[in-house]
Amino acid sequence: MAHLHFDGCDVLELAREFGTPLYVLSEDRIRGRIRELRETFLDRWPGTSAAYASKALQTLDVCRIVASENLDLDVVSGGELYAALKAGFPPERIHFHGNSKTPEEIRMALDAGVGRLIVDNRTELEILDREARSRGIRAPILFRVTPGVDSHTHQYMSTGDLDSKFGIPLDPSVRDQYIGAALGMAGVELRGFHFHVGSQIFSNESHRKALRIVAGLAAEVRERYGLETRELILGGGFATRYTGKDKPEPLAYYTDALMEDLRNLCAESGLPMPRVGIEPGRWIVAEAGITLYTVGSVKEIPGVRTYVGVDGGMPDNIRPALYGAEYEATVADRHDAPRDRVVTVAGKCCESGDILIRDIPLQDPRPGDVLAMFTTGAYTHSMASNYNRLPRPAMVLVRGGKARLSVRRETFEDLTARELLS
Ligand code: LLP
User: Fold this and answer.
1) Residue where a domain stops, chosen among 282, 309, 337
2) Mapping DSSP to helix (H, G, I), strand (E, B) and coil, where does residue 350 land?
3) How far apart are CA 86 and CA 229, in angstroms?
4) Ligand 1 close to Cβ of residue 72 (< 6 A)
5) Residues 136 and 243 in one domain
6) Ligand 1 neighbourhood includes 237 CB (under 6 angstroms)
């Protein structure tokens, strides 16, 4: 029977050597996506840039890969910034995001010399101005604005609607206060605007609508304040294929439309073209990752369904439980066998909602089989928890048929290391 191979590695051997559950990440696939991004966006449209959104998956190795490919990096917390710096990521290529940055995080970002701070609210703006002035610097900032468009994705992944915790509302009464304040501050330099409409978005319509709104904003602020929008970041959110039902378009479907729109909008209003950035996370890493589990039990409830219990679940991949996300999988030891049994893959947590995949035809799974779940590179490791005191899985990085440990498995000792017994 044929074993599943992933980037030249027999996944059964990976499971044997490194144990399960195991995240397997392909360095070549990540680099392949970045190559596509370079060829179809950065090279085609001069004056553009791309930042990888760390939140999708950040490890020291991922930071190293992204740095070596010359992309910028988005971080949203002191922890992500710390890890990026530890991996040697050049601070001037880091963008610091977040809707509730703490004063400590703002100080940390300024001390590190991050390239851009994306400002989300007034309190942050004031702290930033004060801290920058006390350091004798002028912090380069963009305003994150809320364009007020519906991105037709899962409610928890939509960020651009009017009713959003992210960004500065574009109502003139609010917007003008922010711009007026920033222009009067010696500690900040407002270089432009940022928007992000949501995540896993199949149509380019919401990005395009948001761009039209933000280009209108750029024209207004030039007229009213003489402020030139030198930079514009259009966010991430480009869709990836999880199952056969998903038919994502190539990246250029979004970026070509947006760049053409922007060129026209700028020409119409006489604005110079700003530098344009995008910040994909999922699009770069999702399909570069798979997760391996070992089947522990197969429980048939006659006339109802068959549950296949595995040794991981919602702690290593919360997405099915949180968003109803769907995945594909295979029995890795009999990859070529007929898929003649419909089963439900269940995680091992004490939660009825801990179901990884509902009603999927598989190759008659049995205890001891290795199950591979596809497209788990994004928002799995980065959202992992220790619910039920499950140690977080190891991650191996595969490249050209060779695998090496990238993140070691958590131990039981790690799980209690922070606890003090009185
Ligand atoms: N830029 C900003 C400001 C963002 O908030 C995000 C994602 C991105 C870029 C990257 O979006 P991407 O290209 O990865 O779609 N946990 C959810 C996704 C949350 C996305 C949050 N922000 C999930 O598992 O689907």
Assistant:
1) 282
2) coil
3) 33
4) no
5) yes
6) yes
- Alpha carbon distance 11, 290 (integer Å): 10
One domain for residues 258 and 367: no
Ligand 1 center to residue 56 CA distance, Å? 7
Q: Tell me which of 151, 155, 282, 382 to substitute to probe ligand 1's pocket, judged by most ligand atoms within 8 Å of the beta carbon.
A: 282
Token digits of residue 70: 């010359």
Enumerate the active-site residues: 350
Q: How many domains does the chain have?
A: 2
Nearest CA to ligand 1 atom 24: 379
Q: 262 and 310: one domain? A: no
Yes or no: say if 329 and 373 are a contact pair by the CB < 8 Å rule: yes
Specify if 390 maps to a domain.
Answer: yes
Nearest-CA residue for atom 16 of ligand 1: 379
The residue range of the domain holding 320 is 5-24+286-408
Based on the fold, state whether residues 210 and 324 are members of the same structural domain.
no
Residues 393-411 as b/e (b if ≥16 CB within 10 A, e otherwise) read bbbbbbbeeebeebbebbe
For residue 421, is it within any domain? no
Residue 123 three-state SS: helix
pLDDT of the chain along its 422 residues, tens only? Answer: 899 999 999 999 999 999 999 999 999 999 999 999 999 999 999 999 999 999 999 999 999 999 999 999 999 999 999 999 999 999 999 999 999 999 999 999 999 999 999 999 999 999 999 999 999 999 999 999 999 897 777 776 766 677 888 899 998 889 899 999 999 999 999 999 999 999 999 999 999 999 999 999 999 999 999 999 999 999 999 999 999 999 999 999 999 999 999 999 999 999 999 999 999 999 999 999 999 999 999 999 999 999 999 999 999 999 999 999 999 999 999 999 999 999 999 999 999 999 999 999 999 999 999 999 999 999 999 999 999 999 999 999 999 999 999 999 999 999 999 999 99
Contact 356/313 with Cβ under 8 angstroms? Answer: yes
- Please tell me whether the overall predicted TM-score, pTM, comes out greater than 0.70 for this model: yes
Q: Are 244 and 305 members of one domain?
A: no
CATH code assigned at 239: 3.20.20.10
